[in-house]
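User: Predict the full complex structure for these chains.
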Amino acid sequence: MDKPTTTAAIVAAVTGVFSAGAFKFYEFMLKQKREVQQEEKAEQTLYRDDLIKRVENLETERDEHLQQIMDLMTEMAALKVEVGYMKRDNEVLRLKIDSMR
Amino acid sequence: MRSFFKAYRNILVYHDYGPLLLFWNIADLANNRVLWMSYGEALDGGNEWAYFQYALYFVVALGMLFSLPNIRSCSRFVGVYLLLYIFSTTKFVVSVLGDSEFAAGEVGRSLVVTGVYFSLWVWIYVKMRVEVMHKDLRG
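Assistant: Here is the predicted structure of the two-chain assembly.
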């Protein structure tokens, strides 16, 4: 090989190696930057995620309590009817005792 | 004035290289000496190494054209093309420096044009590689 060809081959090889290295370094920097961004994002959304979780728990509890109230109201309505019947029976019995006297 | 230059900067940073690469690639293939000169002619003129070099350019440019939809493969071809470009330019410069018969004006013009073309290929290559990197990072 003549001198210009040898020089050109060396320059091309060195440039290739250096540019490959430079791109690897840039890729590494990009990865680092992205990791930092993801960490920051996770920190920012931490409070929000916690709030979402708490709201979900509270909603579940509210549904359970509503069901309990419904059950109690049904039971109370049944008891009211029963008390009404008992009051009437009591009145009838009292009248019967009064008439026997 | 500042916004005027900023517009040029934005063109370089945000505009896509795809259509430019396609047309430039076709023009490059059509302009390749391999298509317009036989090996015999090159041999007669004592330019057989230059002919091989052009043939190599032709193969790489063809690879670039056919791998255009696949950015990863295409960027490799562009990389090889750039290395060839550096090789031939360096060879030219070293030859010029060692030969006093070259016309200085003609050399200057060639070097300016080569410099502009080189910047173009570097811009395309950097854009492609950065895009590939971002794709890799996104998974």
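Residues 64 and 76 of chain B are 8 Å apart (CA to CA).
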